[in-house]
Structures are given as structure tokens and as C-alpha cells.
Amino acid sequence: MDLKKRVEQYLGPEGLVVAMTECQGDLSAEVPKKNILDVMHLLRDTPDLGFNFLSDVFGVDNLDLNKPKKKPKKKTEEGEGAEAEEEPKEKGPSPPRYEVVYLLLCLERNERLQVKVRVAEDDMEVDSLYPIWKASDWPEREIFDMFGIRFKGHPNLKRLLMWDDFPAHPLRKDYPLEGQGEERHLVYDD
Amino acid sequence: MNQNPTSQTSYESDNYVTINIGPSHPSMHGTLRIITMTDGETIVKAEPDIGYLHRGVEKLGESLTYHQFIPITDRLNYCSAIPNNVSYEMAVEKLMGVEVPEKAQLIRVIMMELARIADHQVCIGILGVDLGAFTPFFYLIIQREEIYEIFEWFNGARLTNTFGRIGGVDADLPDDFEERWEELKPNVRKANDETEKLLTHNRIWMDRTIGISAFSAEDALNRGFTGPCLRACGVKRDLRIDEPYCMYDKFKFEVPVGKNGDVFDRYIVRMIEMEESLKIIDQAYKLYKEMPSDAPLMARVPKVIKPPAGEVYSALESPNGELGFFVKSNGSANPYRIRIRPPCYMMFQALPELVKGEMVADLIACISSLNIIAGELDR
Description:
- The structure holds 2 protein chains of 2 kinds.
- Helices cover 23% and strands 23% of the residues of chain A.
- Chain A is an alpha/beta fold.
- In chain A, the strands form 2 sheets. A 5-stranded mixed sheet of chain A has the order 1-2-5-4-3. In chain A, strands 6-7 form a two-stranded parallel sheet.
- The longest helix of chain A has 11 residues, at 137-147.
- Chain A is globular, with a radius of gyration of 18 Å.
- By secondary structure, chain B is mostly helical.
- Chain B is 47% helix and 11% strand.
- Chain B has helices at residues 5-8, 57-61, 70-74, 81-96, 102-130, 135-155, 177-199, 203-209, 217-222, 228-232, 239-242, 263-290, 343-348, 351-355, 360-370, 374-378; strands at 17-21, 33-39, 42-49, 310-318, 321-329, 337-341.
- Chain A binds chain B through residues 23-26, 28, 52-56, 58, 60-61, 65-66, 68-69, 101, 103, 107, 110, 112, 114, 133-135, 137-138, 159-164, 170-171, 173, 175, 177, and chain B through 1-3, 8, 50-51, 54, 56, 58-59, 62-63, 94-95, 97, 221-224, 235, 237, 242-243, 310-313, 315, 322, 324, 326, 328, 330, 332-334, 336-337, 339, 341, 345-346, 349-350, 378-379.
């Protein structure tokens, strides 16, 4: 049985899969954020799935994912003034802004699976995978560093690459590439 | 990065001395910093602190075009830039659904295996230097320089090769490759033999490496180890065999496996891998010679690369382990997100466990044997 069916078979009945997508043979499953630990336990401990190796964890900021490239550029040039006149283009609830992607690997069958969790701006906390895989230690710190997503249960959640009192989260899409300092543009409350 | 290490980490016991190693220290491989708490000469606690070489490579990629990012990947692992280039190119090719011509794949294999030999030579040479054995370093570095000659004469750069393009390679192997290769091969073997004679059964070398920073296979898998360091722990995993890419399934080679996961096993695994790489290059070059001389080197790709919206992860077995690139596209000419999965990132985070209870001098041996490259660690 192919991987997609197996994942749906084990995770589907309990409502642990929101969506499954496939891109050039890479299967990815989006799961509810609150169930991430259950999902990971299931994926690791079910013999038919057996994803026993965590290859990587990283974040993605989906701000302006489907907008043309020019617009955000213009916005940063004009500074804060332009922020207010952002067109109310998106209708209906837009999907949560951030994603945390876990790359899993089954060593026995050499199968790979991407597990995705969507993180909304008003609830930036995900359960840490540190109790399951210690490999998630630094990657989770890096996501906290770069995106500001907090990991509940991580033993040492502090910045990894930037220095401790760095004021912003640089891999966010609204972090300016040039200028005299991001504090002038961005105020983060954490 | 703490400005003041003692203020944040609670190293307050009177019996312990906190030593700050790095970030700029001759025995550190690049700008690494380790805050160690020692009891006499024994390490009680070690805490790596990284980020001194952070250049924002992932952020940088978001505002470059797909081809412009290839030179940036050179700067990740400067010991073996070519696998980094190829790994990134493979990720974009996978996203675009492009099939690379076989001849280009063979050239990639030849170059990647040469880079693997060079990387292992540096790793073992430096490991020797760090442990006080200076002679093997010269044997190995001379041959590494010969390999760099081949790279240089292939595309003009020793370290930052910018090898290949998305969809294939830009140039064919030069005409006298065979001549150079036949000259290089016995010399590499000879240097390896000399190194082995000097080190492997050397009493001091054995005392300094056997049992040092040993790691069990279970812990290594939990910590995300890959590559020679995982194989040294006794796990037979090599992406070249397990998830073949670039025609690796057509070559016959052995994957060496260690037992204890200590510094000695990592050294031995690397030594054997070099020999296997030589065999792979021979086989790849034989296949390459059978190809017609006008076989294509590039797949048909547009001049401006605009992959369809989507996201893929593609990994290959770099000299250090699994090196993967995650590329997300939204259909424009710039990647939306590039994530690099460097192999030594995962291994360096296990350092506190690896060196706990060892001597300070063994900490240096441990770092050398993991082959930590600050460029890909901090990105």
C-alpha cells in the first residue's frame, strides 16, 4: 500500500489529518497544531509507518505567498505610511501565516514524509518535539530565533544564531532587507 | 550568544572552572564557541554557542534568482563546495521536474566523489594536527591540493567552485582528465597508505582516539546523525545506496560501518570511504567514456527559471552526511523559501553529550572528528 493511503488509514479516523498534498513525489500531511505530539507518536510507533528519524524542522512564513513580487517591495520603500493603505484584498479567513515543517524519514523503507503545522499570528506556540527526538533541539531554537514561534516544553528555548537581545525575527517576510535597523519598522512584543 | 557567559549559565560551583573556548581560537574549526565547565581537566558540561558566522544565507536566497543562489551554496561548506552546489541544483530540478542528462550526472558523480576525497583528507589531516600528529597532514594536504588543481582547471576556482547549473553542467570534462586522474589516483592511495601506517596502529593515536566521545547508534539516530559519524556508530545508512540519485545505483562500492561510534571509528570510516570513492570515480569515468562525445550536458530548461508553485526537499550524501535543500516556490523567479539542512548542524548539537566526562583535549578531537564546518553550521 502506498504511503499516502497508509498515513490516511492511521491518522485519518482520529481526525489528525487536515490535508494531504503531493509535489513531485514529496508527500506532505498537514496536521492540527494541538495534536502534533500525538501525530508524531503515532507516526513513529505504528509499525506500518515507522518514521523513526527526524531529519529536520524549519519554519516558513507564508505572508504574500500568492501576491506578485512587486507589491511588498514598494511597501517597504515607503515605510510605515504605506502599511495603512494595504488593500483589503483577501476575502474570508486567510490561512494562518506561519508553517512549521517536520521532515520525517523511515529508515527501514527509505520513505520520507513532510508533516506540517500551521501557526496563526495570535497563537505562536507549538509543542516541542524534544521529548521524542532530541534532534529537534537546535532547529526549534532556530525557528524561535528566526520566526518568533515558541515551543512548549523545550528545555532551553533561546536564540540560536542571532544574539540574545536582537530585536526582531529576521526570516519573517516583512523583515526589511535594507535600512538602518528593523526596530524602526517592526515592533514585536516578545 | 551571551555577551557574558557566566551571567546566564549557572556555573557557580566553587569546584568548577568555566573555560571559554573560541570563537576565535587556533584549534576551533572556524568561528565556533564552546563554554565548558571543567573539574580539573575533565569536562563537566559543555555548551556550544553558534552563530558567529551567520550570514543569513536562507534570507539572502529569497531575493536572488534560482541561478544566483548557486554561488551562495559554495560558501556553506568550503571544504567541499561541489556537493552543496549539486544538492541545491537537484532540489530545483526536482521542483521543475527536469531530468538531467546522463552524461551530466556522471560528471557530477566524478566531481562530487573528488570533493568527498578532498573533504575527508582535510578532516583526517586536521584531526591529526589537533591530536599532535603533524606529518600525515602534509601527505594528505598535498594530494588535496592536486584535487583542487583538477577543480581549478575545470572551472577556475579552488574552493568556491560554483559547479554545474540547474539542469545539468556547464562544461564537459577537459580532454586530459584521464591523464590527470591516472596520475592522481596512485598518489592519493599512497598518501592514504602512509597516513594509515603512521596513525592506525600508532599507540599514541589509539590511546587518544579509541573510546573517545563514543556514541550509541540509538542516541545517534535520535540526535539526527547522518553520514560517516552515523556509520561509525554501526548504522549502515548511505543515501547513495538507500535513496540513489545521479546514477549511484549503477556503481559497486562498499559502505564501511564502524562499531563504537568513537573518534577512531569515524577516522577509519573516512579512510575506507576515500578508497571507495576512488573506485566510484573509476566506474563513473568508464561509463562516461562510453557516452558519445556530443551527448547533451544540459536538460532543456528556460533561461529564466520559474518553477511551478510547490515545495520539495531533496537530499544527497555529502562528505559529512545528509545535505538537503528544501525549496518552496510561488511561481515567481525568486525562491519563496530555501531551507538548508546541513549535516554537521545536527551533530554539533549533540556535543554536550559527546564530550561529557572527557578531557578538554579530547573535546578538540571530538570536534575535528565530527568535521564541523562553521559555514554550513551557521549559514
